[in-house]
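Record type: monomer structure entry
Structure origin: computed from sequence
Chain ID: A
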Amino acid sequence: MYALLATSMVVLHFALLFYLLIGGLLAARWWWMAIPHALYVGWAVLTLYVAVGCPVTTVENWARAKDGQVVDDRPFMYRYVEGVLYPEHHINYLRAVFVAVILFSWIFSARKLRNRRRAAQGSTSAPLSVNELPDQMSALAEGSTGPQR
């Protein structure tokens, strides 16, 4: 039972790492998802620069100890990612990639939300749909000054 819990915590850690990487894209669909993602990014940055213990690692280590397994006190990233999935000397490259992907996801989501709000407000700066294009072309040929909404 405890071994299953410890393994579940490892799986949860990988899921959280994946969420850290692309969670900002969820805000493009659901705006409110930006809030937990921003909080989680803040938590991740805090754990990089301040010696803060991760609660998921604490539960994993506790379960391993209860199961009689050897407990490794190193953080998750050092045990399962760094030196395993990529060479240890590339840590700064990996962090730069994470920062770039997170920033891209936030910028993408912000632009998507802005475009959605403009479309909902009936702004004429929103791109025309495929169905509107022929009507606009004929209106322009007749001397109209722009789209009529």
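Annotation 1: Residues 2-141 form one domain.
Annotation 2: The chain has one domain: 2-141.
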